[in-house]
Specification:
alpha+beta; four-stranded antiparallel beta sheet; 145 residues; 7 helices; 19% strand; 50s Ribosomal Protein L17, Chain: A; 4 strands
Length: 145
C-alpha cells in the first residue's frame, strides 16, 4: 500500500470516527478488494496505536447443520470467532479511531456514509456514473439522446 493510501486513510479517520472498506473503496475510487487490503496494511502499519479494527467473520457454523452465519468482531476476538465456523471467511470490515464504537454505531455510521455517497452519485451526470463502461452502455446512450 502506498504512502498516498496511508495519507487518505489517516485523513478519513481524522474526519470520521470510523471508515469501512466500502466507504474507502468509493471515496478512493478503488476496488473493494484493494480497499480491504489498504485497510489491512494501514492497520498493520499502525499496530499499537490504539486503532480499532473490526472484522467480518462468517461461514458454515460448527454443528449448525450447514447453517450460515456472519458477525462483526473486534480484532482481539477474531481467533475465538473463527472457531465458531467450519471454514471461516474473514476480512477487515472497518478501522476506527482509538476505542471506537459498538456494532450499532458502526451500522449507523456506515449508513450515513452511504447516504452521503448516494447523494453525490445522484448529483453526477449519468455519463460520469457509467464511465467504466463508456458511452456504449445502454443507460449512457439513453441519457445522451
Amino acid at each position: 500500500m502506498g504512502a498516498s493510501s496511508h495519507e487518505q486513510l489517516a485523513a478519513l479517520l481524522d474526519e470520521h470516527s470510523l471508515v469501512t472498506y466500502r466507504y474507502y473503496a468509493q471515496h478512493a475510487d478503488v476496488s473493494v478488494t484493494d480497499a480491504k487490503e489498504a485497510l489491512r496494511a494501514y492497520h498493520e502499519a499502525n499496530a499499537g496505536s490504539g486503532l480499532t479494527a473490526i472484522y467480518m467473520v462468517g461461514g458454515s457454523r460448527v454443528g449448525g447443520n450447514g447453517g450460515m452465519g456472519y458477525e462483526l468482531v473486534p480484532y482481539d476476538a477474531l481467533d475465538l470467532a473463527k472457531e465458531r465456523y467450519e471454514s471461516p471467511s474473514c476480512h477487515l470490515y472497518s478501522l476506527g479511531a482509538p476505542k471506537a464504537l459498538s456494532n450499532d454505531a458502526i451500522f449507523l455510521l456506515n449508513h450515513g456514509q452511504d447516504r452521503r455517497l448516494y447523494e453525490e452519485v445522484r448529483a453526477r451526470p449519468l455519463s460520469r456514473l457509467w464511465g467504466a463502461w463508456g458511452d456504449g452502455h445502454p443507460l449512457c446512450r439513453a441519457h445522451a439522446q
